[in-house]
Amino acid sequence: TYGSSVRVGSSLDCYLNSVRLLNEKGYQILLCGDILLSQSIFHEFKGMFVDYKTLGVNQDIFNLYAALEVDLFIGEAGGGIFLPSLNNIPRLYINAFPYFNGMTNCWLHYKTMRDSKSHTLIPLQEILTKYAYESAERAIPGMKICCNSAEEILEAISTFLVDIQNPESATQEQALNLTFPKDIWFQYTSTKISPAFLKLYSKEGMPI
Hints:
The protein is α/β, with parallel strands linked by helices. The chain has 8 helices and 8 strands. It has helices spanning 16-24, 39-45, 52-55, 59-68, 124-130, 150-163, 173-176, 195-203, and strands spanning 29-30, 49-50, 73-75, 91-96, 106-110, 112-115, 143-146, 192-193. Strands 3-4-5-8 form a 4-stranded parallel β-sheet. α1 (16-24) packs parallel to α6. The chain is globular, with a radius of gyration of 17 Å. The relative contact order is 0.17. The mean pLDDT is 88.
């Protein structure tokens, strides 16, 4: 799915296998945002995947609780992604975009940027140096920005669950041998790049 808009993200269906994984690990999922659960999905997950409507509670209170009183937060672009900072809750930012983003105690799994003809990944160093501030309003000639697939999201969440148990092992700038521009948020927060995102490059034989 092309995702050159900040507000274009992966579909709910792309998250269902990840929800199953999280349920297996003992996590109940609280769904916030613009999408409500269908009755079929709600019944499939037997109370382990809920939203404000299925619980019959006030939406605003539910949203605040889901951002501030949980063990971990997994989300996409929107105001809610910032709230967990208040309680230092670990966050995984799926489809992170624009690329300058950075937040405390946060793992970024960026939208992928690919050559529109060859479909090869654009090196992360090039993205952060040349395209960090590209946004929804302007297409990048010769490039396409893609939302994370179901497989990519599952891998991102799997590695996130490992990292939050051992955060010091998460890949940092020094280990990556990248040079980050001094004006991006990444430089001034405890942001980490998702190991699953970096693995995409090794899988495709591309330099980071």
